[in-house]
Structures are given as structure tokens and as C-alpha cells.
């Protein structure tokens, strides 16, 4: 490995993924080396760089690569259970050597430092990487580590489309096609004539900006429907219908009851020019939202994007949306009455959406990790199945196919029984 590649590893700002050791480390107590190996393996894996000081400079010593690798491999196999999987690389130069130990992430069971009496293991000690060091794991982290599959980071992309009648933007022409429009129009229908005049004076910029800035509040209205009585509510999706259910232990889960007073007021450039009172929509609606205890809401509006963030000591959920494009017409084919111009009558805006979730485990213990994970996935499910433009398009196609099939069945039935009374 050349020095430029080593420098990339040294420059990793996430200390949880890299550790620097000087050459005496190669002669350290096997239990200390084993603790480092299992701590990395039980987190995300990554690198131990031997021959680098804490200030990220070269130590300047020579290293016997073969001998050092063999010793570390023996420790990984004999002092760790299950054995920790390793790879090695080596940088040799006149101003000092660097041994790169790549620790692979655990595959199923968590790794432990073991002490033996003969062939029998009599003690297991579990460590996990935390910040720039390691720590012993508690029961909640150990339960988490024994899960075969888990996600500490979730990144999901989606898209959203909003279309409107250019002569009457307060009229919901999306109803029955995209259910999320009901939450958007809870705000849009309150626009007055002065607001509409302002919007249409610079339609492309103002309408795109307005939808962008309203989105976080509309999505909170949607969440309030799902989490009215408990944040543990889940979604059941059948072939034709969607329903929600609340697990029996939900009443015992610590919660924060969010009212409109806990929702940040708009600060975006578009809403600041309008008389629309976002807070009034929440005051006049039966808004009630249960979130995991300690969760706060943050909303950031900028000219080209917006972010809705749910912050909890155990996790963070961020939903970002940015403007993709504005166009005249409708975003899907439709037959209009003769003489009616699609482009003149309608317009639509498309947005890019990004759902990000990060859990603070194992740096922060979380006895409710499984429940928190399900809560986060319910929000992700809401975006992907209720707000995602691709899903709306698929439903439109299915609806057209159903209509065609119904028409064909009616024609065939009429051909079999061409009775005038049947036709009526």
C-alpha cells in the first residue's frame, strides 16, 4: 500500500472506524489486542493502523510484517470467540513502516474476549467500539449484538409530485389519486386572494417554494393520524386495504405528547411573503401526536430544500426534500374535454425526497431499540407507500387496467345477451 492510501485511512474523521497504535502495541498483552479486535468487529469493523501516532504522524519505526501479522492472527483465533476475521496490508518506507489491520464486521454472533481452562471457555467479555476507544457492553447492547440482522443507519430515496389547477390552486384536484394531497390542502385551502395573486405573479418559483415549505407540516399531520394514541402503532398492508394496529404493551412505553406549541413556526422565504397562518391549521385541527419520550421536532426551510427532523437521545430521523422541476400540464396522461389545453390549465412540481435515520446504539444504551426501530420503519413505510410518486403512478396504472378489464367484461356480457333492457 502506498503512502497516499495510508493517508486516506488516517484522514477518516470517524474515530469509531480507525485506531492509531505505535509499534510497542505489537508486543502488548494478548487480552488487550483481543479486546480491540472484538470491539471493532462488534461495531462496523475497519482499521487499526500500527506505526501511526495519536497526532496522525508516522512513528518512524521498522516493523516485521510477517511476524506481527502471525501474532495478531493467533490472538484473533485463540483469544476471541468466534474468531475475528482479519485482513492485512503493509506500507514500508525509509521514514517508517505502517501495518494496516483490517478488522471485518461480525457476521452473526457477537465476538468476545475469552479466557480458557484447557479447551474450555470459562469467561467471555464483550466489547464494542465507541468514539475513539472501546467499552464493555451492557445488557441492552448485548441483546442488540445478538440480533442476526440490524440497521443502525437507514438511507432511502423517494420522490414526490404535486399538481394543481393553475386558475384555482386551492382546489384539490389530486383527491382520490394521491392521498397525501389532503394534508397539503389543509394548508393551501387557506390561501386568500392576495396570497394567490402573489403566488401567480412568479408561479414557477413561488408554487414550488410553497409546496416545499408546507411539506414538513403536512407530513406531521399525516404522522398525527398514525400516532394519535401511541408511537408504537404499526401499519398493516393487505392486498386492497391498509389498516393500523397498536401492540398491547404500547401503553407502557414512555411517550411525549406533541401539541402544535412544540412545532417550530415557518421561516422559509416563500411562506414569509404570504398571510397563511400554519399554526392556525394545527390549532383548529384535532392534532395529537405521540412520539418516543424525549423526541423534539426541528424544521429547516431554505430556498431549494427543506428538512423535517425528529431528534431523540437514542436516534435521529431526518426527512429532506428538494425541488427537482416545475412543468406545465399534468404529470400523467389524461383525456381532457375537446378544446381544453392541458398545459394552460394545469402545472406540476416534482421533488426529490431522502429519508435518513441513525441510531445511537451502541454508543448510547437503548432498552427500547426494537420498538424505536419499528417506529422509524413505520415512518419510512409511510413515505415509500403513501407519498412516493412511483407508488402513485403504479396505482394509476392498476386503476386503468381494472377499468379496461371491467369494460371488456361488460362488452362480453352484452355480446352474450344483447337485450336492450340488459344494456340499460
TrEMBL record:
Signal peptide: none annotated. InterPro entries: Schlafen_AlbA_2_dom, Schlafen_AlbA_2_dom_sf. Residues 17-136 form the Schlafen AlbA-2 domain. This is Divergent AAA domain-containing protein. It comes from Nitrososphaera gargensis (strain Ga9.2). The lineage of its organism: Archaea, Nitrososphaerota, Nitrososphaeria, Nitrososphaerales, Nitrososphaeraceae.
Amino acid at each position: 500500500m502506498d503512502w497516499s492510501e495510508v493517508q486516506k485511512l488516517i484522514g477518516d474523521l470517524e474515530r469509531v472506524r480507525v485506531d492509531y497504535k505505535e509499534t510497542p502495541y505489537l508486543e502488548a498483552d494478548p487480552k488487550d489486542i483481543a479486546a480491540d479486535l472484538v470491539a471493532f468487529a462488534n461495531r462496523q469493523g475497519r482499521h487499526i493502523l500500527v506505526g501511526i501516532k495519536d497526532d496522525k504522524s508516522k512513528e518512524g519505526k521498522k516493523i516485521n510484517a510477517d511476524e506481527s501479522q502471525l501474532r495478531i492472527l493467533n490472538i484473533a483465533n485463540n483469544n476471541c470467540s468466534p474468531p475475528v476475521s482479519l485482513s492485512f496490508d503493509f506500507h514500508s518506507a525509509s521514514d517508517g513502516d505502517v501495518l494496516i489491520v483490517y478488522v471485518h464486521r461480525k457476521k452473526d454472533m457477537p465476538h468476545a474476549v475469552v479466557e480458557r481452562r484447557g479447551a474450555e471457555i470459562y469467561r467471555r467479555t464483550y466489547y464494542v467500539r465507541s468514539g475513539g476507544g472501546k467499552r464493555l457492553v451492557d445488557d441492552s447492547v448485548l441483546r442488540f449484538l445478538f440480533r442476526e440482522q440490524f440497521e443502525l443507519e437507514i438511507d432511502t430515496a423517494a420522490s414526490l409530485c404535486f399538481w394543481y389547477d393553475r386558475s384555482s390552486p386551492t382546489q384539490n384536484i389530486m383527491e382520490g389519486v394521491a392521498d397525501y394531497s389532503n394534508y397539503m390542502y389543509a394548508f393551501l385551502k387557506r390561501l386568500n386572494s392576495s396570497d394567490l395573486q402573489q403566488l401567480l405573479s412568479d408561479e414557477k418559483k413561488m408554487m414550488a417554494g410553497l409546496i416545499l415549505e408546507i411539506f414538513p407540516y403536512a407530513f406531521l399531520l399525516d404522522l398525527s393520524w398514525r400516532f394519535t394514541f401511541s408511537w408504537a402503532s404499526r401499519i398493516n398492508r393487505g392486498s386492497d386495504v391498509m389498516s393500523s394496529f397498536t401492540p398491547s404493551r404500547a401503553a407502557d412505553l414512555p411517550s411525549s405528547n406533541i401539541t402544535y406549541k412544540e412545532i417550530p413556526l415557518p421561516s422559509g422565504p416563500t411562506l414569509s411573503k404570504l398571510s397563511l397562518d400554519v399554526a392556525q391549521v394545527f390549532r383548529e385541527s384535532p392534532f395529537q401526536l405521540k412520539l418516543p419520550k424525549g423526541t423534539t421536532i426541528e424544521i429547516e426551510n431554505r430556498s431549494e430544500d427543506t428538512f423535517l427532523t425528529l431528534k431523540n437521545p437514542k436516534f435521529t430521523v431526518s426527512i429532506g426534500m428538494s425541488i427537482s422541476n416545475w412543468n406545465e400540464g399534468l404529470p400523467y396522461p389524461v383525456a381532457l374535454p375537446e378544446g381544453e389545453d392541458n398545459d394552460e390549465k394545469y402545472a406540476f412540481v416534482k421533488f426529490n425526497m431522502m429519508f435518513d435515520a441513525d441510531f445511537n446504539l451502541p454508543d448510547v444504551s437503548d432498552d427500547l431499540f426494537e420498538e424505536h426501530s419499528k417506529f422509524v420503519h413505520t415512518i419510512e413505510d409511510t413515505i415509500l407507500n403513501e407519498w412516493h410518486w412511483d407508488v402513485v403512478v403504479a396505482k394509476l396504472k392498476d386503476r386503468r387496467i381494472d377499468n379496461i378489464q371491467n369494460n371488456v367484461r361488460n362488452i362480453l356480457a352484452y355480446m352474450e345477451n344483447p337485450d336492450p333492457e340488459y344494456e340499460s
